[in-house]
Design goal:
disordered C terminus; 9 strands; Spore Coat Polysaccharide Biosynthesis Protein SpsA, Chain A; alpha/beta; seven-stranded mixed beta sheet; about 210 residues
Length: about 210
């Protein structure tokens, strides 16, 4: 069993789009939203719990993506956690089942794995192997045995650094294809999801590295 996890900050329209598209294909899967929106934006999403049958944990401050994920990972009790950015839209069903069928029980997680430096910049061959949290399936028990995500432009950097030298990350090519910058956003060009890169950043005024 999985629980989907998304962190939201002042983007009710993005979260609504994600939940509408997710519930179209997965009407009963548990879904936890960690929200750090201000009062005006929270008023627009506080009824999403009933509307979309999700659990919303609201903070009176911007908890940020990394700490929000860390909080959610500790709260969730299902064996697997599906990380989804709030600016993801689900185009068709089957992606959860595909990731579940491939995720090994000993792995940390599966999704888009690339190499980055400490600042979160992609580099080739060297650096840290990084599982992008935009769309990733984690084994909760394994993930909780490593450091949790942090407030950072690349919030998974600390757990990924702790994973160096261990073969616990699984790369799934369709996730990379669907997340790629500059790839045609026509629906037929995507496998399962479409990602509005920097959707929250562009609406809320920037990204915080530390």
């Amino acid at each position: 069993m999985i629980t989907a996890l998304s962190v939201n900050y002042n983007t009710p329209e993005l979260l609504e789009s994600l939940l509408i598209s997710f519930r179209k294909f997965y009407p009963a899967s548990p879904f936890l939203v960690i929200d750090g929106s201000d009062k005006a934006h929270y008023r627009r999403i506080k009824n999403f719990d009933r509307r979309f049958n999700v659990s919303i944990h609201h903070f009176d401050y911007n908890i940020h993506h990394g700490p929000g994920m860390a909080y959610g990972m500790k709260m969730i009790t299902t064996p697997q956690i599906l990380l989804l950015d709030s600016d993801i839209r689900i185009l068709r069903g089957g992606f959860v089942e595909d990731l579940q069928s491939k995720l090994l029980p000993t792995s940390y997680g599966i999704g888009d794995v690339s190499n980055i430096n400490r600042d979160g910049v992609s580099i080739l061959e060297t650096g840290v192997r990084y599982l992008h949290p935009a769309c990733a399936l984690l084994n909760r028990g394994v993930a909780l045995s490593f450091p949790l995500p942090i407030k950072h432009g690349a919030p998974m950097i600390e757990p990924m650094e702790a994973l160096k030298g261990r073969n616990l990350l699984q790369h799934e090519q369709w996730v990379s294809d669907d997340l790629i910058h500059g790839l045609s956003n026509k629906l037929h060009a995507k496998h399962y999801i479409i990602h509005e890169w920097s959707g929250t950043v562009s609406r809320t005024g920037g990204i915080h590295l530390w």
